[in-house]
Specification:
Elements (H helix, E strand, L loop, with lengths): L6 H10 L3 H13 L3 H13 L7 H13 L3 H13 L7 H11 L4 H11 L15 E6 L2 E5 L5 H11 L4 E2 L2 E2 L6 E2 L7 E5 L6 H14 L9 E6 L5 E4 L10 E8 L4 E3 L2 E3 L4 E3 L6 E5 L13 E3 L2 E4 L1 E9 L17
Helix pairs in contact: 1-2, 2-3, 3-4, 4-5, 5-6, 6-7
Length: about 325
């Protein structure tokens, strides 16, 4: 016997059929009865602005109600909203308290608490100390911080990304369209505000501190997986015609048990194979804001094993992660 479709699936089918009013009534009615999945769905609708108006304050409210109604994934989302300040003031301690309250009955929350307690962070989730920076090149400006992430933190990032992996795409500089392309043959997953948890938020704060940038200038963390033969041919990370340009890139190597896969900068004669948790950062633009062609780099083909990295592209000014509806584009 086939199990009935979940409420969110039924609502999606109604929306795809153009029956918006029926979808809203289905979910709203269940929410009024205290259904956690329905309350969570209303929160998501208010985040993405479809089919309801975008309203982070209401989204935050619905995620909180959904979590308290027993819908466990919503409590993690609610904690992230509280920590980020989405729809209200940022309150790290309150977010941490929400996770601690959920941990006895929620394995995921308990795992987050375990990882967070192992971090050297202050009352706002920011790192108290960082590994020393090692300058690698002057053109492009490139540096490394060894073991910025712990092995357990790297494994956590991989676990978050695995269910979301999809073939990587590039953006055509002439048309602006995204498409698969032989220049980039990896798989990736974008860990935006809805996909992340409190551990990932703390890691984003650490990346901001390690690069001397504002955490709000960073795009969502993107995780990439390279299998044997997969690579990313020579490219730079800037976007065509973008005013709020990607001025810096931060890469964290999430594992080291593979062969090949070096990050190479032809202009600098630099080849890097990071160890688990190492961060590589480099500047993509010149002082005048134009693309620094010396920042062109290659993700060399993996020859054995599987390579995992995560990348955070950092913009010149604050970046709105909620507007990023597709995998983060890359220029070819």
């Amino acid at each position: 016997m086939v199990a009935p479709a979940s409420l969110s699936v039924r609502a999606r089918h109604l929306l795809e059929a153009g029956d918006t009013a029926d979808a809203i009534e289905l979910v709203s009615g269940a929410a009024r009865r205290g259904d956690g999945e329905a309350l969570n769905e209303l929160g998501l609708w208010h985040v993405y602005g479809q089919p309801l108006q975008r309203d982070f304050a209401r989204a935050r409210l619905f995620f909180g109600h959904a979590g308290r109604a027993g819908y466990k994934p919503a409590m993690t989302t609610y904690a992230v909203f509280v920590a980020l300040g989405a729809g209200g003031e940022p309150r790290w301690k309150e977010a941490l308290g929400l996770l601690e309250a959920a941990a006895p009955d929620d394995v995921r929350a308990a795992r987050q608490i375990e990882l967070l307690r192992a971090m050297d962070i202050d009352g706002d989730g920011r790192p108290r100390s960082l590994p020393a920076e090692e300058r690698l090149a002057r053109s492009p400006i490139a540096a490394r911080r060894s073991r910025l992430f712990s092995p357990a933190e790297c494994a956590h990032v991989i676990d978050l990304a695995k269910p979301l992996l999809a073939p990587s795409v590039v953006v055509d500089s002439r048309t602006g369209r995204q498409s698969p392309n032989p220049v980039r043959t990896s798989f990736n997953a974008v860990l935006g505000p809805i996909q992340q948890d409190l551990v990932l938020h703390a890691l984003n704060l650490r990346l901001a501190a390690a690069t001397g940038t504002d955490v709000e200038a960073g795009e969502p963390l993107i995780v990439l997986r390279y299998e044997p033969g997969q690579q990313y041919r020579e490219h730079h990370d800037c976007l065509p015609g973008e005013a709020n340009q990607r001025v810096r890139t931060a890469i964290v190597y999430l594992n080291e048990d593979y062969q090949g896969g070096e990050t190479s900068f032809p202009a600098a004669g630099l080849d890097i194979k990071g160890r688990t948790g190492d961060m590589l950062t480099f500047v993509n633009t010149r002082p005048d804001g134009q693309v620094d062609l010396a920042s062109r780099h290659i993700g060399q083909a993996v020859t054995k094993g599987t390579k995992w990295i995560c990348t955070r592209w950092i913009r010149r000014a604050r970046f709105d992660p909620w507007g990023l509806r597709t995998p983060s584009p890359l220029i070819r």
